[in-house]
Amino acid sequence: MQEKFEKSRDIIAEKFDLPKDVVLNLPKITIIGNNEITIENHKGIILFERDIIKINTKVKVINIQGENFEILYIGDSTITISGRFKSVSYEV
């Protein structure tokens, strides 16, 4: 039933040209240079260390590798992190 509902939301978003990240609650990742990243629609922090961060999302876990990470802002569904980023990937 849930899968049917999600598929319907996807079709509606496409037909009405609505942003899928908003309608489907998908993660939106904004990277500024290699020193600031904002992730919207996250589901919480799994791991936070100085050189690796794992953030849970509806889709998959996002892995961020680099150094000197700091949380600049954290809200209900948005997090902004600073540091020096080397890679951003989804966990397999």
Automatic annotation (TrEMBL):
Protein name listed in UniProt: Sporulation protein YqfC
Give the organism the record lists: Clostridium sartagoforme
| Domain of life of the organism encoding this protein | Bacteria
- Pfam families named among the record's database cross-references: YabP
